[in-house]
Amino acid sequence: MLNCLLNHHNTKVASTAEGQFKYPTGREALERLKYDPVILRTLPESVTNSYCGTGNPFSMETIGAEEILLDFGCGAGVDAIFAAKMTKNTGRIIGLDIVSEMIKKAEINKKTLGITNLELTLSNGTILEFADEYFNTIISNSVINLVPDKETILKEFYRCLKPGGKLLLVDQVFKGTKIKEHPARVKSWFQ
């Protein structure tokens, strides 16, 4: 059921995030969140329209050349594209998502920009198929709130990070008296 809900919502977002959320999306959000303006100017509307993150993981730490970076829950690939451009095509960027429509949109965005150091993969969930200490950096933008088993994914992140690696998470935070059950949180993701 969870994957069905995610697929339904993400199919809409894969075409455009505009008007899907109660918070800014697209280029407006990227500007407000202070994404690198030099890189942002290189992105066409067809790419920026699908951005729906709630924060800028790159505001916490810089991404250098030759880094190996995982974008967990990459969606349409906007953050992964920023990372690929930050490494000047010398790093290796891997984007994972559980929704095939998002991976398809990310592939289109990657091809539109001629990005060569970005691999996009359909994920099966919270077990990461990577060796221990593989990544320099792991980012995730507004996805952990949708993961039912947060403890497992966080352990997987730390297992896959190199010593001294960076975990850059931005997400929504629950504020209230009672948290919704997981399917209800996914269903109300756009609210």
Automatic annotation (TrEMBL):
<feature type="domain" description="Methyltransferase">
    <location>
        <begin position="68"/>
        <end position="187"/>
    </location>
</feature>
<protein>
    <recommendedName>
        <fullName>Arsenite methyltransferase</fullName>
        <ecNumber>2.1.1.137</ecNumber>
    </recommendedName>
</protein>
<dbReference type="InterPro" id="IPR029063">
    <property type="entry name" value="SAM-dependent_MTases_sf"/>
</dbReference>
<dbReference type="InterPro" id="IPR025714">
    <property type="entry name" value="Methyltranfer_dom"/>
</dbReference>
<dbReference type="InterPro" id="IPR026669">
    <property type="entry name" value="Arsenite_MeTrfase-like"/>
</dbReference>
<dbReference type="Pfam" id="PF13847">
    <property type="entry name" value="Methyltransf_31"/>
</dbReference>
<keyword id="KW-0614">Plasmid</keyword>
<keyword id="KW-0808">Transferase</keyword>
<dbReference type="GO" id="GO:0030791">
    <property type="term" value="F:arsenite methyltransferase activity"/>
</dbReference>
<keyword id="KW-0949">S-adenosyl-L-methionine</keyword>
<keyword id="KW-0489">Methyltransferase</keyword>
<comment type="similarity">
    <text>Belongs to the methyltransferase superfamily. Arsenite methyltransferase family.</text>
</comment>
<dbReference type="GO" id="GO:0032259">
    <property type="term" value="P:methylation"/>
</dbReference>
